[in-house]
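Per-residue structure
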Amino acid sequence: MAGTRREMIGLGGAGVALLAAWGIVRPAMAAEKFPVTLSDAEWRKRLGTGDTYAVLRHEATETPGSSKLLKEHRTGTFTCAGCAQKLFSSKTKYDSGTGWPSFWAPLPNAVGTSTDVSIGLPRTEVHCARCGGHLGHVFDDGPKPTGKRYCMNGVAMRFVPGAA
């Protein structure tokens, strides 16, 4: 019986992941209303059909180590690539060794979170508070002072140099 339960849990998680990939099951935040709301066609027109669109609007994940923002060390602000919402100060960026830009805290009221079960295990998904665009995930293994690791997809953000 235990083997059967494990198989059912595994199949259930795989099914949710497959349905999420097809866009049939969306995260809880999909029902949320955001100040910037566009149709899928409008988002495609704004973002193109590449990685930025796939990550922000369909919760894809960029290849680890591929983001030019990994090596961005200037003073400035990281913004949403979809709506230009200010998300993270360069003062909170650090090298987590994961292959994605990481931060220990977002700017106030910049992001929201929801539960993501797309891989069969619950994780905390991070999205832009203004447009709902998927940014990445947050984990409890970051540095002080927060202990958080906001592991973000670089293609979902832009960097604006200047005061942070």
About this structure: The radius of gyration is 16 Å. The domain at 2-161 is CATH 2.170.150.20 (Metal Binding Protein, Guanine Nucleotide Exchange Factor; Chain A).
